[in-house]
Amino acid sequence: MLTTGTLRVLAALAGAEFRRYVTYRQATFAGAFTNTVFGFVRCYTLLSVAAVTGSMAGYDAAQLVAFVWVGQGLLAVVNTWGHQELPERVRTGQVVADLLRPVDLMAAYVAADIGRAGHAMLTRFVVPVVVGLLAFDFYLPAHAWTYPLFAVSVLLAVLVCSACRYLVALSAFWLLDVRGLQMVWMVASGAGSGLYFPITVLPDWLVVALWVGTPFPSLLQAPVDVLVERDGGAHGLLLVAGQAAWVLVLVGVGRVVQRHAVRRLVVQGG
């Protein structure tokens, strides 16, 4: 149960991670510039397809523009490709010190990730989206309530991704070297989240399987679909509800795996 003191500690961890990323000014600029360049490449590619067919996977030209540029901005916020320190701490044994702290390991990991995401939202998200707004006919929501719903969807996307990456990191208790599993995660999450293309271009049965059976669409596809108001407001509420469900499922799985990982560490003498 989270007490007031624990919440203050978690807030402090999030703030410390935010301040940590503020110091990486050159990396932030380089990342925002790279995302913007690839935004132009992806945008012109998808628009060329839409110019021939009239639309692409149910998105008109303005929605495709928003899909690309918001997706480029969210890439760093959600952070599917982010570097993780926990596997290295497990390999070196430093994780023992983390487990001795008065804050739960998973809670501390997620709190720090939220601080990182907050910094990325103010920097890596803003730059590509502003460029997209200035350079293209950008879809803007027709309803004011779409904006807060989008904010909730982004927060849930961060939590879903953080929980998934935490599970990958926990595998270090058994594998020690998790680089292979991290590569599988990056490829699968990229293809299934809408990073490369809207997943609606895939066959209907595969789209349903991705939405129902994996958390991947909750990472990028769901927040963007909420913002472009695809299929109306009721659909956006359904997407956010699905993201919330995945947060609960992944947190539950994470608690179980963490308990077994700690038990394994104790058995090995850690």
Would you give an account of this structure?
The chain has 270 residues and is an all-alpha fold. The protein has one domain (4-267). Helices cover 76% and strands 0% of the residues. The protein is built from 12 helices and no strands. Helix 2 crosses helix 6 (105-135) and helix 3 (61-79) runs antiparallel to helix 6. It starts with a helix and ends with a helix. The mean pLDDT is 89.
The geometry reads as globular
Secondary-structure element string? HHHHHHHHHHHH
Radius of gyration, in angstroms, nearest whole number: 19 Å
- Uncertain regions spanning at least 5 consecutive residues: none
Keywords:
270 residues; mainly alpha; globular
Short description:
The chain has 270 residues and is an all-alpha fold. The protein is 76% helix and 0% strand.
Question: Layout of SSEs?
Answer:
Elements (H helix, E strand, L loop, with lengths): L3 H19 L2 H29 L7 H19 L6 H7 L2 H6 L4 H31 L10 H25 L1 H4 L3 H14 L11 H10 L7 H7 L5 H35 L3
